[in-house]
Amino acid sequence: MNYTVVQVALGGAVGASLRYLAGRGAFHLMGPGFPWGTIFVNIFGSFLMGVLVVLMAEKGGTRMAPFLTVGMLGGFTTFSSFSLDFMTIFERGQSGLAFVYAAASVILSLAAIAAGLFAARSVFS
């Protein structure tokens, strides 16, 4: 089997497990009604992606990119769950909350990757 595929698969297992734990933790902390776990992993995962991109570019380590980016962060962040969460809220008749959730997810994730890039460049450049 191709080594890169193994890296992606192992990273995906780690990321998906962490996503599950984050979702359960958010549910226990915040309760039902809003997908706090999903929004957290998408924002935090975007931040980590920014940090990793800079770190790998500045310090090397691109050999770990399949494991860390496609695998681990791909398994950790979850826009498919985001889409399901949006539709669930929307179909409950809470269209305003659904659109706030969508906007917050996109805007804060983009802001988080920008912050990750900036933070990592400040440290590693």
* Residue windows where pLDDT falls under 50 for at least 5 positions: none
Helix amount: over 70%
The secondary-structure class comes to mainly alpha
- As for the number of domains, it is 1
Number of strand segments: 0
- Beta-strand content estimate: under 5%
- The averaged pLDDT comes out at 94
Provide structural commentary:
The protein is an all-alpha fold. The chain has one domain. It is 86% helix and 0% strand. The chain is built from five helices and no strands. It has helices spanning 3-30, 36-59, 65-76, 79-91, 95-124. Helix 2 packs antiparallel against helix 3. The longest helix is centred in the last third of the chain and has 30 residues, at 95-124. The N and C termini lie far apart (36 Å). The model has no long low-confidence stretch (mean pLDDT 94).
SSE order and pairing:
Layout: H1 3-30, H2 36-59, H3 65-76, H4 79-91, H5 95-124
What would a concise description of this structure say?
This protein is an all-alpha fold. The protein has helices spanning 3-30, 36-59, 65-76, 79-91, 95-124. It has one domain (3-124).
Descriptive tags:
about 120 residues; mainly alpha; about 0% strand; globular
